[in-house]
Structures are given as C-alpha cells and as structure tokens.
Amino acid sequence: MDDIIKDIEEKYRNLGQNPETYLKGLYHSKPINYWDYIELDTLLTLQKPRTDFPDEPIFIMYHQVTELLLKLITHEIKQIVDNELIDTKLFREKIERINRYAGVLTASFSVMREGMDYDQYNQFRLTLAPASGFQSAQFRFIELFCTDAHLLVNARTKSQVNDSTDMEFLFENLYWKDGGLDHKTGKKTLTLQHFEDKYLDSLKLAANKYKGKNVYHRFLSLDQNDEDVKELKYAMREFDHTYNVIWPMAHIKTAAYYLNSKGENKAATGGSEWQKYLHPSYQRRIFFPQLWTAEEIENWGK
Ligand code: HEM
C-alpha cells in the first residue's frame, strides 16, 4: 500500500501537481459501474428506425455490429502500419486477431440473409434511398491501410498503373467508383456524390500517408526466408481471402435473395449495377497480390 501511495505521489509531483488533491479526488469519486463503463444507455438508443416494420431494427443493429467489427479490424491494422519496428511475432498476432474478426463478419452474415422477413425488408429499404452500405467509410479506409491505391483500381486500368502513378488518376479509377455510377445514365449516383463530399479528401490523405507503409509493405519488408514470416504469410492470405472473397460472396448472395430471387431484379438503394459490381471476380480486390500465384489471381472469386 505504501509503495503504491509513493508511486502516486511521484507520478503527480513529476507532472507538477499536488498529489494530495488527486488522492482526495479519488476518495470522493463514485465507483464505476458496468452500464456507465460501456456507455450502455447511449449504445441502446442509437437505433432509430424510419418505419414501424419490426425487422428494421435488425438491419440497423447488424450494420452497427459490422461497423464495430470494422473498427476492431482497424484498431489492429493501425498497430501494424504505425509501428515501423514491428516484429514478426506481433505482426502475426495482429493478423490473427483480424482474421477472427473477419471470421465473425462472414459467419454472422446469415443474420441478414435468413434473419429478416423478405417482404418487410423490401418495404422498409425503400425509405433508406439513397443511403447504402456502399457509403461505409471504414470499409474504404481499411483498403488503403492494407494496400496501395494502384492495387485498388478497376480491372480495366490495372495494367496501366503502378506505384508511381499520380494519386488523382488512381482515385479517378478506383474499383469502387464503378459501384457509384448510375447504370442507366453513366453519371455519378447521389450515393457516391454524398460519400465523396464527406470522405474523399480524408481518403486521399490516408492513401498518401500509408503509401509504401501499409500492411502489404510492412510484410514485404520482412525477411521472406524466415520460417515465422512464412507462417505469417498464411495468416495474411486468410485475411485477404476472407475479407475480399468470402465476405463479398455472403453479401452478394444476400443481395440476390432480397433483390432478385423472384426474378424481379430490383434496383438497389445505392443505384449500382450490383449483380456485376459486387462480385469479387469483377472487383478483383486483392490486398496482397505477391502472396498469391498467377493462377490463384486469375481465379479470384470464381
Ligand atoms: C439485406 C442486406 C443487404 C443488402 C440487400 C445489401 C445490398 C447491397 C448492394 C446492392 C450494394 C451495392 C451498392 C448499392 O447499389 O446500394 C451494397 C454495397 C455495400 N454494402 Fe450492402 N447489403 C446488405 C447488407 C449490408 C451490411 C450488413 C453491410 C455492413 C456494413 C453492408 C455493407 C456494404 C458495403 C461495404 C458495400 C460496398 C461494397 C463494395 O464496394 O465492394 N451491406 N450492398
């Protein structure tokens, strides 16, 4: 007890503060409880349905759960990319954590596919236009923390770009721009316009900041003959495949069930040509291309 009091005194004296004030403050402070610690009251009031359909809160909450999982993934990624001296053991620990979160994302997607009433969904979704999961900024930031922008351009442009291509050109040709074009007019959808107004500048900043310092580059800078790096490579491949093939497949199957299972081919709230755009073999989003064989890349998402 004496030791800890001494440590506290020293801590506050070093900060130029009077330790007695802090100890008295501690004496008066209320004990913390579970609901305040995790901000439960706030968390449980964040669901604001736009209709009275009982299944709409499921849709909202599952998106919120997904955003929290994306935040957990980002939390680990940032500890890789912001640590120039990261060692292989810690790197692998982080990627394995990410793989667990990505596993939860994919395994739980049935909450969307099987867990809502078809007719209710197809009515309440009409009140959401032009909002779409397409506007998830965390989803886009994760891409730029993981790999270089020139690896995220659409398949038509990939052969024309490399790591010295101008960032503005790369941004004009990012694969996800295809999802933001109205397939009838070829113009930018309102969904994409809103998204770019809010996030484009910060996405460009992130792309420039992490170019050459993202997860992919941190991995490539390790000694590739090291046995531990070979193990890490498998974990990285699992992440790339789960996030860029298995999750998109679960997602597109859900979209097909709600929007096309009766052959009605309904327009999505974001207005994209989603049947084509959402398929991993069309997007060809691959974070770590050197970790795959030419054949594996050729068959990506097939
Ligand atoms: C019934 C469930 C869902 C359906 C029918 C659905 C449908 C769609 C469609 C059609 C698109 C293409 C853009 C558009 O035109 O709107 C899209 C994009 C997207 N959605 Fe969903 N979605 C569902 C659930 C979710 C959930 C739970 C998330 C989690 C945040 C999500 C995240 C995304 C993302 C990140 C994109 C962009 C994907 C990319 O660019 O590769 N979606 N969704």
Provide the descriptors you would attach to this structure in a database record.
302 residues, mainly alpha, Methane Monooxygenase Hydroxylase, Chain G, domain 1, 59% helix, globular, binds protoporphyrin IX containing FE
Question: How is this structure best described in words?
Answer:
The protein has 302 residues and is mostly helical. The protein has one domain (53-298): Methane Monooxygenase Hydroxylase, Chain G, domain 1 (Up-down Bundle). It is 59% helix and 0% strand. It is built from 16 helices and no strands. It has helices spanning 2-14, 19-28, 34-37, 40-43, 56-81, 88-107, 110-113, 118-124, 137-146, 167-172, 190-210, 215-220, 227-260, 274-277, 280-283, 294-298. The protein is globular, with a radius of gyration of 23 Å. The model has no long low-confidence stretch (mean pLDDT 96). Bound molecules: protoporphyrin IX containing FE. Residues 62-63, 66, 112, 121, 132-134, 136, 139, 176, 179, 251, 254-255, 258-259, 268-272, 274, 278, 283 line the site of protoporphyrin IX containing FE.
Low-confidence stretches: none
What is the fold-level CATH name, i.e. the topology? Methane Monooxygenase Hydroxylase, Chain G, domain 1
Main sheet characteristics: none
Structural class: mainly alpha
Ligand inventory: protoporphyrin IX containing FE
Whole-number total of structural domains: 1
What coarse outline follows from CA principal-axis ratios?
globular
Order of helices and strands: HHHHHHHHHHHHHHHH
How many helical stretches? Answer: 16
Residue fraction in strands: under 5%
Helix share, percent: 55-70%
Quickly name the level 1 CATH class: Mainly Alpha
Q: Report how far the terminal alpha carbons are from each other.
A: 63 Å
User: Based on DSSP secondary structure assignment, what is the total number of beta strands?
Assistant: 0
Mean pLDDT: 96
Radius of gyration over all CA atoms, rounded: 23 Å
CATH architecture: Up-down Bundle
